[in-house]
Amino acid sequence: MLRCCLLFSTLLLLIAVPTQADEGWHAGIAKRNITPGESMWMAGYGNRDHPSEGKLTDLWAKALVLRDAAGKQAVLITLDLVGIDRDLATEITDQIQDKHKLDRSQIAICCSHTHTGPALKNNLAPLHYLILDSDQQQKIESYQQHLQINVIEAVDSAFADQQPAKLFWGNGTATFATNRRENRPEGNVPQWRREGMLKGPVDHDVPVLAVRDSQDQLVGVVFGYACHATVLGVYSWSGDYPGYACAELEESHPDAIAMFWAGCGADQNPLPRRTVELAKHYGQRLASAVDTVLMTVQMQAVAPTLTTRFREIDLPLGTLPSRDQIETNSRSTNKWEVARATMLLDQLDRGEALSQTYPYAIGSWELGDQVDMVFLGGEVVVDYALRLKSELRGTQSWIAGYANDVMAYIPSRRVLREGGYEGGTSMVYYGLPAHWSPEVEQHIVDEVHRQLD
Questions:
Q1: Residues annotated in the binding site, as ranges?
Q2: Rounded CA gap, 399 and 207, in Å?
Q3: Domains of the chain: which residue ranges?
Q4: Closest CA to 413 of 447, 389, 445
Q5: Spans of the chain, pLDDT less than 70
């Protein structure tokens, strides 16, 4: 009897104690093609007058699953889309949570913000969906269903692909992002750049996370940059410069998948722009910045510990419009203002009052003791990245915008005070009823500190 008990105790110890291979990271990575299979309306610009025509590059949904030494998991999803709305993000994350037994903090969805991808139903609805005919609306709804399936398949494949891995971080530089609020007309940017006369805050950091297998083979690379993906205004599907950067990296590293997340580039443009050659050029420059880190910088190992947090805060809007004001806007000569007003009137007619706040998504991951990843919703201006990095870990703090829910521009207090497109007029195209309150910056920064402090 004693011998049986000793044998049983030994077996329990063998089960409970992880093997050497289990003491580090595990990672799985996968991708699915999300290029529309038919001509349909494109997202990002209000002056388009017809659906898409062919493609320059494919569009992708990519997923990276990480598991630390204690078994804690997280899923990073990147999408070649202008943005994703809260309802669609919730549908996707609910499925992942149920299937893979995760909580909401363990999932982050990042969009590249390409302006040559497909329109979705509730993202920028007054700019696109609400002013289109029923045929185009049906195509958008059908595409969105297939998009959701492809995202879930990419995540499932990444979970199935998990293997022992090593993570390394580093930081590079790319300088083509330009503050678009401070440098107008953009045609003068080349001369101002040559003369060192460009103005306004920028963030030229290129954070890089390398995922290597147990044989040190690169299997994944995740990188970010704070700049609008607006080189192109064509009618062909394209990932814009981030898509070209990923393609360049995957060609150089054929066993790896490259994933891009957009930083706080809401007021940053790639200038000059508007040619395919420039989109490829900026993509090559960004890929070169990543490769410089991968090949010539002594990247730091990331300890196999993972902490994830997520919360929606009540982000305050300014003074809400009256019904009379909305009815006046519904007779505007601006078709997008009319679309927003019609949407708001429908809401009021259903007996739903306009909300004074918006449920704003903020997530954060801590990778080892080395890297903080912050995931901010909306189109976030560069002030947030500069402030948060100065208050947190500098280049070891990676601040993503366009994450989880792209519901509006997110101006800093400075930009909100200055006004302009990012400071307020863009709210029409997203459908929110008013400008943000001057307090939004402090609310967001306080929550980031609450999560990471």
A1: 113, 228
A2: 10
A3: 21-305+369-406
A4: 445
A5: 1-22
